[in-house]
Fold this sequence. Notes:
The protein is mainly α. It contains 31 helices and 15 strands.
Amino acid sequence: MAPRTTRFIASGSPGTLHDQIIGGLAAPSWLREGSLLDNRWIIGTEDPQKRRNTDIALRFDSVLAPGLRLSDPRCEHDSITAKLLVYWSLSPSEGSHSSGASVAILHRNYLQFVRWRLSCGLKRNASLTPEWIEKFFETLRDCGVRGLLPLEERAVAFANAIRAGKRRPPTYKKGKHTYFDFDTAAEKLGVPNGRLLTDAARRILIALAAELGYPLRPDQARSSGFAIAWTPDSQDTEINDGSYHESSAENPMGRPTSRSAGRIGGFLRPLAYLWQFRGRLSHDPIGCNPFPGDRTVNSVARAIADDSDGRTFTVPPLQACTLIDRALCWVLDYAPDLQRYVEEVERVLTTEEVRAHWYPYQAAATRVNIAFVEHKSCTQPGSPWPIRPAYYPGQNAIKNFAEIRPSLRTVLFEYLAVACMIVIAAFSARRREEIESLRFPAIHHIDGDPWLETWIEKTIRDLDKIPVPKSVEKAVEVLSWLSSMYRQRTKERWLFQFDDVARADPSTKPKTARFDVYRSLSRFAEFVQLPPLPDGTQWDPKPHQFRRFFGITYYHRFCYPHLTALSNFYRHFDPDQTRRYVTEAARGGFLRQAEDKRVQARRSELEIARYHAQRLEDFDVEGESFRLARFRNVALGKDRISGWGGEVIKRQLDDLVQQAKAQLDIAPEDDLPGATLDSLLLTFVKDKRLEPNSLGHSYCKCTSEPQDLRSAACLTAREAERDEAAFFSAPDPAFAADHICSGCPHNVQFAECEPYWAETIAQAQQQLSCSFAPLLRVLTQERLDMAQAHYSRCFGTKTGG
């Protein structure tokens, strides 16, 4: 691996084309250190006081082909192009990138394109013709990003050469042991690491290593991307090189997640830049326009993508809601006792008896554990109690962290910290990068309500305040406690930076407890015992799915009443506030204080609009996913739908299925193929609506179409109460009471609505039995009649006592 300051040509001759072109560029403000001539750039585009991890490292010596790197003199033109693409894409006047993270994706995608081009024997971009561009698109469509290269063929040749003694196996020593170097083997095949190999190529290398006596170890699988190739039935799940993700397995929603239009579009964007910046790339201009005429990056991406609209429904709702339910337990129920536990351990550590022990912490924790041995939550799934009397997890616990009781460091700085992150993500619709950059104090009260000050990752790239519920405020309080020692020591404000607690010798410098969100999230999900997926496998949540959590709980919150923490939370939290914030902000509303208006005035109106539109799209994707799942179950007879609006939807679904069967010559009693049904439903759900009422008595199918709004009972009631005509663009939740919605033509009922109506009937009967005032008895009887009529129509007869 080349040193950071190595120049392109070792001689440093000023006559090289690379040094002439790159050396003639003005030093940009985003280059944090070194020179543009270096093979490693450190890019920083954000204020490090507002966002964590602002520095992005780009390498210009990556492997491009077996035995060939970008820093090789033979690749001089590609090295120049790679640097110029990054440089000009960050230009305020000519580029469209404003962050180091996004330009790093552009850089990695371009290098993968160069690898394909070189594998085809094309040494320059100038050699590209329309025919070669079409071949690239076809290969990408048929084989995916990793399938662009003949990696399986290379892996076979590499393995055979080692078996024949023509090459030495790549190995490294660690202590007294020798291990197979899988990343070096991947470089021999022409890619930087194992994450960019195809699954077939990975298996060939794993088999070779085992044959040579170097079986793949768990830590190698995690670090080199080989875990997904362990079993013959496993599938590629993602390219964790930071640039693109793919999957060949179908997700729980029944839709493929591989090669979505969004990801393919991102991968194709370097081609568009090669044409856009061709005047800046005179040393090797692209030979043709990859997107001539009406052809665009997005249109080609949609044609290549294997899903119809580029959206991927990859978050299983039951498992996600369970994860959020467990996280709420940790934040709201377990955190106070954990703080008391830590304080008690630290107090005991100050006693002379414990300080003189060989293992002071173990002695203190053992003594304190007596008071927590029968904690009230010990029998609950995912409870931290009992905590093992050890501070560090140890090797055995790391290997079996789901079976062995957790140590204190694991409890505090993995499970509790990631639980806070999950709660914040679920009820503030924040992304991982934004949550990781939270600063103390993160909560501000405006008119008595908590607002979260957070970094906005997409487009705005600045601090902003958003309304949040009390659970998010509580999660921030827990993080403030966990991070207090680190903040006091360093004078930094980050909430996700931690120092170790409960030190035997407080005078020693504390160690920083590193928080790895990917590892912690995966371990927490396994520890709290999420239910298995329908195919029996376990869901492994990823941080990029955080942005979907609010939409999932919003739509599914009444589907899983056994999740008591989540159900109790929604009894005290009206999600319509966050729902309105997401919706109205995307439509230009919801401006708050004069201060906020001044902040927004300094920003690009286009960027603000794009940001809010993206947040609304994330939410709408979950709504579409929810409708798809519910309507599929109705079409298959697994769910019963009722209510006036539900009956309409049922007739529409029946007609849709019967028409499809007639066109495909399928007998009426036979089922449609699953893929055909999904394809029909994907179109069917797009213009539909299925919004849960905040009280849980109904779902509403009313859209913003004028004919729907004219018949909406809640709007009729609002107009009658205010005695004035008004323009409506959506149903009004404030007037969506049960007696109004029950008679509305848009009312939809599912099985989870039944308990509400059963309880309403029981309450009315009890009130009627003890009421003596005539007027009250009349009103109560009317409510009882209404509820019983609705129950009988939607769920069957229930008359009560």
